[in-house]
Amino acid sequence: IRMSFTADAVSVNAGCNTLTGSASIEDYELVVGELASTTMACDDALEEQDRWLTSVLNSRPRFERVDDDFYLSHDETVIHLVPADG
């Protein structure tokens, strides 16, 4: 999963479509607005992965920074994000 943030938006790609939308941090939760998506024709597994990722992002996951890494978590799901190499 590749995620990039600006002051008020997020862009996410997990191997198929790119999801973009407004984003903010409120009470340690990532709050994502309605996500727009590219419309690449991908295999069923990648399209299901995009649906899963959209669901996680819409769940107001806990957003935590530990050193240079970031974690998104909701229920049993934890996504560990590391900075891209320079």
The gyration radius over C-alpha positions equals: 13 Å
Q: Could you name the ranges where pLDDT drops below 50 across 5 or more consecutive residues? A: none
- The share of residues in helices is 10-25%
What structural class do the secondary elements suggest?
alpha+beta
- Termini distance? 17 Å
Provide an overview of this structure:
This protein has 86 residues and is an alpha+beta fold. The protein has 1 helix and 8 strands. The protein has one helix at 44-58, and strands at 2-5, 9-13, 18-26, 29-32, 36-37, 62-66, 69-74, 77-81. The strands form 2 sheets. Strands 1, 2, 3, 4 and 5 form a 5-stranded antiparallel beta sheet that branches. The protein has a 3-stranded antiparallel beta sheet with strand order 6-7-8, with no helix packed on it. The longest helix has 15 residues, at 44-58. It is globular, with a radius of gyration of 13 Å. The mean pLDDT is 92.
Task: Report a brief summary of the structure.
The protein is an alpha+beta fold and 86 residues long.
SSE layout and pairings?
Elements: E1 2-5, E2 9-13, E3 18-26, E4 29-32, E5 36-37, H1 44-58, E6 62-66, E7 69-74, E8 77-81
Antiparallel strand pairs: 1-2, 2-3, 3-4, 3-5, 6-7, 7-8
Characteristic key phrases:
17% helix; 8 strands; five-stranded antiparallel sheet; globular; three-stranded antiparallel sheet; 1 helix; alpha+beta
